[in-house]
Write a structure and sequence with these properties.
This protein is mainly alpha-helical and 127 residues long. It has 7 helices and 2 strands, in the order E-E-H-H-H-H-H-H-H. It has a two-stranded antiparallel sheet with strand order 1-2. 19% of the residues are buried.
């Protein structure tokens, strides 16, 4: 769990251990993977209940896959309750926003685009 710490000046902040996910998040941000996926597969809905772009969902799936692989997909939001996603990936995040429906929409969009072309173009753009 995140630990609340109070500084000598009275400022309160949380101590959160992100382990190896800090390096993974830095790689995702530095390579622009989220933005490149969003260019290839734009989010078509303006529905305000869809809080994430497809690029952000892919980044979350990468983070989730590197630390929570033995749990069912519908439990993925639980993994992120103890992670500082805003620090790791750089966008606003609430665990209840990330669920199997969100992942399903992104996986469907990726399938419609074509997984081989998506991976090939992404690899080329990142390189």
């Amino acid at each position: 769990m995140n630990e609340m710490i109070t500084s000598r000046t009275g400022e309160k902040f949380y101590n959160c251990c992100i382990h190896h996910l800090g390096m993974v998040g830095a790689f995702i941000r530095e390579t622009g993977i989220m933005e490149k996926i969003d260019e290839m597969i734009p989010k078509l809905s303006n529905n305000t209940s869809f809080h994430f772009s497809h690029g952000q969902v892919v980044a979350l799936m990468i983070i989730n896959g590197l630390g929570y692989t033995s749990k069912p997909l519908y439990m993925c939001h639980e993994y992120f309750r103890k992670k500082d996603v805003e620090t790791i990936l750089g966008f606003e995040f609430k665990p209840e926003w990330f669920n199997d429906d969100v992942i399903g929409r992104t996986l469907d969009a990726m399938f419609e685009y074509g997984l081989t072309p998506l991976f090939s173009e992404l690899a080329f753009k990142v390189y």
